[in-house]
Amino acid sequence: MSGKTSTESKRRYNKTAYITHLYVFRKNSELAECILEFKSHKGTSLNYLITELLSQHFGVSVPIPETDWSE
């Protein structure tokens, strides 16, 4: 049952380490087409893209998840 324990501990860690936001956009929009195309490529992360663009907008560095483990 180690898989369940691992999943549960990841869930608890993520709940304390990250903030989650829900956003919506119109399905029949050019933006929706672009987002769906972007997400269709393997190795791309919409979450990272949003994080990177928000960091640029606010003039802060992009948080690096790997550094979370050293805290």
Could you characterize what this model shows?
The protein is mostly helical. It has one domain. The chain has helices at residues 2-17, 30-39, 46-58. It is extended. It starts with a helix and ends in a 13-residue tail after the last helix.
Kindly summarize this structure in a few lines.
The protein is mainly alpha-helical and 71 residues long. The chain is 55% helix and 0% strand.
Keywords:
extended, 71 residues, mainly alpha
* Secondary-structure content class: mainly alpha
> In percent terms, what proportion of residues is strand?
under 5%
| Percent range of helical residues | 40-55%
**What is the chain-wise order of helices and strands?**
HHH
Alpha-carbon distance between the two ends: 28 Å
Query: Low-confidence spans: pLDDT under 50, at least 5 residues?
Result: none
> How many individual domains?
1
Shape: extended
Average pLDDT reading:
86
- Put simply, the count of helices is 3
Helices and strands in order:
Elements lengths: L1 H16 L12 H10 L6 H13 L13
